[in-house]
Amino acid sequence: MRVDLDHVPDVVIVSSSFRTGGAEISSIRLANGLFADGVNVELLVLVDEGECRSLVSPGLPVHALRQRRSRYGFFYLW
Questions:
Q1: Which tops the pLDDT comparison, 33 or 49?
Q2: What is the helix (H) or strand (E) element at residue 71, kind and residue range?
Q3: Is residue 45 a contact partner of residue 62, using CB atoms and an 8 Å limit?
Q4: Whole-angstrom Cα distance, residue 54 to residue 72?
Q5: Tens-digit pLDDT profile for residues 25-42
Q6: Could you tell me which of 28, 32, 35 has the C-alpha nearest to residue 14?
Q7: Which of the chain's termini has less CB crowding within 10 Å, N or C?
Q8: Is 46 in contact with 71 (CB distance < 8 Å)?
Q9: What does the DSSP assignment read for 15-47?
């Protein structure tokens, strides 16, 4: 995954996955709320899987790094 400098969101919310948990659900609710208010927001996850995936609003961009560990996952942004 490479960063597209022609398209830079106003807000990027980072989470490890969409597994059930307080932080994951809070991140999704925050992203959904900002998206509904017209903010250019995107979700960045290490792994695009989990029970909470269905809670993400349709049309909200989700980017997955496809990495199991955050220690190495963010190196794929560069």
A1: 33
A2: helix 70-73
A3: yes
A4: 26
A5: 999 999 999 999 999 999
A6: 28
A7: C
A8: no
A9: ES-S-SSHHHHHHHHHHHHHHHTT--EEEEESS
Between strands 62-64 and 41-45, the pairing is parallel
Question: Sheet holding 11-15: strands in order across?
Answer: 11-15, 41-45, 62-64
Helix (H, G, I), strand (E, B) or coil at 63: strand
Q: What is the pLDDT of residues 1-28, one digit of tens each?
A: 455 667 788 999 998 889 888 999 999 9
Sign of CA dihedral 67, 71, 75, 77: positive
Q: What is the C-alpha separation between 75 and 47, in angstroms, rounded? A: 14
